[in-house]
Amino acid sequence: MKALLYGYYLDFKSFFGIYFSILLGLIISKFLITPSASSSSSLNSALINCMIMLPVAMMVITSNSELKKKFSFPVDRDLLVLCHILLILVLPLVMLLMSCFFYLVELLLAELTLSVTTNFFYSLAITKSSFLIGFAISYMIIVCVTALTWMVSAWFYRHKVPVGVIGAAFILGLIYLDDFRDSVFGLIGRLFHNPTPGLLSLKLAVITLAAFALGYIPIKRMEVK
Amino acid sequence: MNKWVMIALSIALVLSFALVYALSPSDEAFLARYAPGEYITVAAFDVPLDIIPSTVFRPKPLPSSGGSSISENCWAIMLKS
């Protein structure tokens, strides 16, 4: 397992390099382009980045070629799934912690800019409680979205035609059928509608666990030559 | 990557989290700092005469907010084109 995790660590080095570059680029470009810095922008942009990059990473690691590259004795299917789950739990945490580092860089840059020029203002607005709750809920949401993508990708690579047809029908339904779109968005709205942070975390945790269980099935049944 | 570099990076990341938490103000300090009395208007916008703001209205509170301060304090200007 240690060797497998080390293999994934080597794979994800470039992934973190890309993430680091994107956040750095966003912060620098913001300070170059706009006369102000507001809200908790590096934390927000980190959340959006995680929501885009992690699903892509999950699609890659569940692909046939990547799985078979890792699947060599004594690695078995259970170990592989366990490593994937560990990745889904650890990667968002590291990415969010990196966003905290960039938030500090942003604060430092804002203070430096403020000391150099008067034509600048910033209000990077978070409080202790909003930071902790935001961090925890962001982590839960990212883990949930990543787990769902992992589950769908795991099914897709093993059963391309049925999952492709269902996925395409779902996306076309979202685009063309108003009632279907409203009901799907209504369902998502009900998940996030006015809950306490604890209740929301519980709902997200249940969805995440269900995604882990469902994603385990196709990898367990995977055929290997 | 060197093991010690990894350990140093991990400590730096955890320290970042702790620093952000430590540097953030508490809710009370934040609200006191950003109270309406602490603001002045420093910007105004020139609007062409043919789209004079015809209505200034106060929207109803959102059902989910239960009449919270966000929607209560939110004013919107409708421009009639």
Brief characterization of the structure:
The complex is a heterodimer of chains A (225) and B (81). Chain A is mainly α. Chain A is 83% helix and 3% strand.
Characterization of the model:
- The complex is a heterodimer of chains A (225) and B (81).
- With 225 residues, chain A is mainly α.
- Chain A has one domain.
- In chain A, 83% of the residues lie in helices and 3% in strands.
- Chain A is built from 8 helices and 2 strands, in the order αβαααβαααα.
- Chain A has helices at residues 2-33, 41-61, 64-70, 77-116, 128-158, 160-176, 178-192, 197-220, and strands spanning 36-38, 121-123.
- A two-stranded parallel ribbon of chain A has the order 1-2.
- Chain B is an alpha+beta fold.
- Chain B has one domain.
- In chain B, 40% of the residues lie in helices and 11% in strands.
- Chain B starts with a helix and ends with a strand.
- The relative contact order of chain B is 0.10.
- The model of chain B is unreliable at 65-81 (pLDDT under 50).
- Classes of the chains: A mainly alpha (225), B alpha+beta (81).
- Chains A and B meet through α4 and α5 of A and α1 and α2 of B.
